[in-house]
Amino acid sequence: MIHLDDVTLTFPDGDSRVTAVDHVTLTAPAGVVTGITGPSGSGKSSILAVAATLIRPDSGRVLIGDVDAATLSKKEATALRRDGIGIVFQQSNLVPSLTAREQLLVMAELGGGRRDRTAVRRRADALLDAVGLAAHAGKRPAQLSGGQRQRVAIARALVNDPSVLLVDEPTSALDQERGAEIMDLIAQLSHQRGTATLLVTHDLVHRAALDRLVTVVDGRIAGVEEAGLDHDGASLSAEPPVGAPR
Length: 246
Known about the structure:
This protein has 246 residues and is α/β, with parallel strands linked by helices. The chain has one domain (2-94, 146-226): P-loop containing nucleotide triphosphate hydrolases (Rossmann fold), CATH 3.40.50. Helix content is 30%, strand content 26%. The protein has 6 helices and 10 strands; from the N terminus they run E-E-E-H-E-E-H-E-H-H-H-E-H-E-E-E. It has helices at 44-51, 74-84, 100-110, 117-130, 146-158, 176-193, and strands at residues 2-13, 16-28, 33-37, 59-64, 67-68, 85-88, 164-168, 196-200, 212-217, 220-226. A 6-stranded mixed beta sheet has the order 6-7-8-3-9-10, sandwiched between helices. Helix 3 (100-110) packs parallel to helix 5 (146-158) and helix 4 (117-130) crosses helix 5. The longest helix has 18 residues, at 176-193. It starts with a strand and ends in a 20-residue tail after the last strand.
């Protein structure tokens, strides 16, 4: 689970400051895909950056499980981001010289602790199979389509088994058909793996892939739409208890 508790973020603007995130409280429960939408400049990407521990908020708590990331040092935040948070950007940002499998192996190598390389390779191959790219494990980015590159990026984000997945506009560079496939894949993997997923999108064509949709306007939450039932048929609460696991 990830929980933002009364988070505020401001940036300098000449002699004053502009508020990007204004007292936002938001929970992304485990196994649920929570979408964030809103007009350009509404603060949705700033919320994602705070959740990713890339920016420390002015005030409020950022709970990843039971850890308040807002209180961590840069080194501690980096370790948490490396091992506990998967991030998928608008562009796949793959290393041109590495194969699809190697993209995952490098990320696993960066993970904390000693790793069994044979087990890591099996895990990488299993993830590539899960995203439909088992037959393309040996291909480099230039040999893959845009949708395939985004699938590799999703698998890479999950290779260290994070409890939280943060996704920024995953369909922005894809046509509608490929975008729908990527959204469905993210939802499927989040549900299967119990991953708390926050996904920023402006494209509500793919609304059906989201379990909940949070609308942000001027840095504030303007509304929350619930799908009603989660993938197991249980009722979804708007804000689970802060102490809930993951």
